Amino acid sequence: MKLFDNIKSGIDKISVDSLKDKVEAIKETMPKKDKAEKKPEKAAEKAPDKKEEIPEGHIKCPSCGNIIEKRALGHLKICPKCAKLFRMNARDRIRAIADKDSFEEFDVNMESKNPLNFPDYTAKIKSTQEKTGLKDAIKTGKCTIEGRPCVIAVMDSGFMMASLGSVVGEKLTRAFEYATEHKMAVIVFTCSGGARMQEGIISLMQMAKVSAAVAKHSQAGLLYVTVLTDPTYGGVTASYAMLGDIILSEPKAAIGFAGRRVIEGTIKQKLPDEFQTAEFLLEHGFIDSIVEREMLPEVLSRILKLHNIKKAGEM
Ligand SMILES: [Zn+2]
User: Fold this and answer.
1) CA 216, 288, 86 angle in degrees (round to 5)?
2) What is the pTM of this model?
């Protein structure tokens, strides 16, 4: 018994000591100082913005600083002064990619049920639905692109930063299952801040669920193309965004898993300026090509053609 106690106290001592070390190590990696230092800087940055008045129907380009009439951005949402790409909502994106009147939406009315009873989540969903006219952060359906049929899914950053929750996961899974059944290619436009925290583990499970549907689609020998748009982060990057047979991106899109500040705080190193941009990822082999926004319908149609996806009536 005594021997056992000795061993036990020895084990306790070891585990307590090693735990202490671990806690210290974790504390080291926390970016506490960064936060304290950056706060005043941020406040100073924001102050002049408040004074500047932006007239109704106008927007300030965050890239060139010009005040631009929103209409001047055109249907592709591009700054006429500096060609910066503004974020597109799902509706505008589908309009820009799919042939006119060809889009047939799947699961139009699917909405989240607040599975974990997360405080205020139901109200937040409702107000975001009213604001955006969307039921959740993705639209899925089928369409033709320059005559060639495909299943298309477009995430929308206007809906809770296109976070991956149960509805996004389920709609994507069903879209892939439909495509597998009907032997169709899938094109997914990604953008996301990551998993939806209000749905906790259920949100994380969507990564595996969608990936499994992607795998079955792939085993059937079918084509999957992802188009990464600004910003694509977190669980979306860690699952279906990077599973495309062909991975395209829009210019200057921010793409990553964890954000720059978290990584810099953890590894205690300064990251290169262009880190987590589409251009940096292309150089390092993470993506296949960067495509200008206005070229996307043509490039996607050509990719479909190269994979033997025919127009109606084409031999
Ligand atoms: Zn601009």
Assistant:
1) 100
2) 0.83
Ion ligand 1: residues, CB < 5 A: 61, 63-64, 79, 81-82, 84
Residue 270 has a CB neighbour count (10 Å cut-off) of 9
Given a contact cutoff of 8 angstroms between Cβ atoms, the answer to whether 161 and 132 are in contact is no
| 58-60 and 67-69 strand pairing | antiparallel
Buried b (16+ CB within 10 A) or exposed e, 226-247: bbbbbbbbbbbbbbbbbbbbbb
- How many residues are there in the chain? 315
In this structure, CATH architecture of domain 87-306: Alpha-Beta Complex (3.90)
Ligand 1 centre and the CA of 82: distance in Å? 4
143-189: pLDDT as tens digits? 999 999 999 999 999 999 999 999 999 999 999 999 999 999 999 99
What is the pLDDT, as a whole number, of residue 39? Answer: 46
CA distances to 63, 265, 267 from 270, in Å: 23, 9, 9
- Residue for token pair 């880190």: 275
Q: What's the gap in Å between 288 CA and the centre of ligand 1?
A: 27
Residue showing tokens 């995430």: 155
